Amino acid sequence: MKFAIVTFPGSNSDYDAYQAVVEQLGEQAVYVWHKDHDLQGADVVILPGGFSYGDYLRAGAIARFSPIMQEVATHAARGAPVVGFCNGFQIACEAGLLPGALLRNDSLKFVSENVRLRVENANTRFTSEYESGQLITLPIAHGDGRFTADEDTLDRLEGNGQVVFRYVPGAGDADRWWSPNGSARAIAGIINEAGNVLAMMPHPERAVDQLVSSGDGLPLFHSILARVAA
Amino acid sequence: MTRYSVSVHITPRRGVLDPQGQAVGGALRTLGFAGVRDVHVGRYVIVEADADSEQAARDDVSRMCERLLANPVIEDFEIATVSAK
Fold first, then answer.
1. Strands (E), chain B
2. How far apart, in Å, are the Cα atoms of B42 and each of A189, B21, B35?
3. Per the residue annotation, which of A34, A75, A86, A129 is the catalytic one?
4. Any idea what the CATH number is for the domain that residue A217 is in?
């Protein structure tokens, strides 16, 4: 299986994504420059974390107009998988691949820490190797992570099972809504209605090796491998 | 074609939490401006562009706001001034 990792000026998590795919998953990955027009036949597109275009105007707002995003939109429109982490979530929302928007954290502070998440929907092609309700730990590192959408959109996301990851305060208190950034309904990651575009603020690609982190991000990559290859 | 200068205010949509505005409001009250009730911090963009008429320049910038300068999910925009250069 081949992953295309889109590199924008200011991407900084593209190498983490590459390592996760190549070293941990043992699959093929290629970097695709934002000015390219070719995804090189990749099965899966990763929109990596970082600060594309210096977050000018709004996080992700300029990246969405990069030439390669036309190809990404076409890839997504034919039902092929696209996954975004952190800045990739912001870009996916700005590009209209996902509903909502990511705003400045309610604390106004950049947050860089490990957070607890609950897997709300394990019945997606990106999360099948988790259990629904499973609590996992992943790192976050963002200043603009406050997921925002109107109430109708939030209700629709909930009703359709499109809320895939939610922040939780801790293992013993997992039912209380809490988030490190003020996200609506503590939403950390969502999937589109068609089920082929998932994006999240936390960084699973930085949590694929017990040596440096929780390893809780690895099942996401294994899920992609298992379901997309099938 | 005439060159126009079009200025536009982009502000957080009412009802969307604006922590930056709240923080500034809190600072203003701390300074003694007790009457401050609400502050909204946004962007002020000036676009200089060639257009056939004032209305065309205004329409162009509206479309720019809808497509890039503002995010309709979270922001409102209002064209403040249009003037020939």
1. 2-12, 43-51, 75-84
2. 27, 9, 21
3. A86
4. 3.40.50.880
Residue-number span of the structural domain to which A107 is assigned:
2-229
Neighbour-count burial of B36, counting CB atoms closer than 10 A to its CB (0-12 exposed, 13-18 middle, 19+ buried): middle
ipTM, two decimals, is 0.80
Domains, chain B, with CATH or none: 2-84 (3.30.1280.10)
A93 catalytically annotated: no
User: How far is it, in rounded angstroms, from Cα B76 to Cα B85?
Assistant: 26
Q: Which of A34, A75, A142, A203 is catalytic?
A: A203
Looking at residue A157, the DSSP 8-state letter turns out to be H
A86 is catalytic: yes
The predicted-structure confidence for A47-70, as pLDDT tens digits, reads as follows 999 999 888 889 999 998 899 999
Give kind and range of the element (H or E) at residue A137: strand A135-142
> Is residue B48 classed as helix, strand or coil in its secondary structure?
strand
